[in-house]
Amino acid sequence: MSENLNDPVEELTLETCWELLRGSSLGRIAVSFQGEPEISPVNFIAVGDRLLLRTSQGTKLLKLTINDKVALETDSVGTHIAWSVVVKGTARVIDSQKEIFEADQLPLKPLIPTLKYVWVEITPTEVSGRRFRLAPEPERY
């Protein structure tokens, strides 16, 4: 945790953020569409310095193609520790057959029984994270 043992919040290094991203597969993607924020759950995989997710034709894909600026958040809450990592970046639909073939070899499968043939790549512009020490609220006085 933090160097200050009384501080319940620790800013994570970029390396630690990527370790947590590589160990995660479920997150929430946020995009602004027609001036309104939209958040959708997605499963993803971290590959190198980018994130890949699968989706199907539909509203989520339409929103990503209209506004390619996105944020993806993943987190975990345990008994004593919680953490959150946020990736801000640019999304693009993978359309080259070579890239699609390579993505199809990755161990990312849909979590629900739907066909998701469209791959989306998120290239990060910013990655940040925090770890939290969980404990009861302190006394006020």
How would you characterize this protein structure?
This protein has 141 residues and is of the alpha+beta class. The chain has a single domain, classed as Roll (Pnp Oxidase, Chain A). It is built from three helices and seven strands; from the N terminus they run βαβββαββαβ. It has helices spanning 14-22, 59-66, 97-104, and strands spanning 9-11, 26-33, 36-47, 50-55, 69-77, 81-93, 118-133. Strands 2-3-4-7-6-5 form a six-stranded antiparallel β-barrel. A hairpin with a 2-residue loop joins strand 3 (36-47) and strand 4 (50-55). It is elongated and about 60 Å long. 18% of the residues are buried.
Q: How many DSSP E strands?
A: 7
The profile of the biggest β sheet is: 6 strands, antiparallel, barrel
Give the proportion of residues in helices: 10-25%
Instruction: Flag low-confidence runs.
Output: none
- By CATH, the topology is Pnp Oxidase, Chain A
Shape, per Cα inertia axes: elongated
- CATH architecture classification name: Roll
Q: Can you give the mean pLDDT?
A: 89
Radius of gyration based on Cα positions = 17 Å
Number of helices: 3
- Give the topology string: H per helix, E per strand: EHEEEHEEHE
The percentage of residues in β strands lies in over 45%
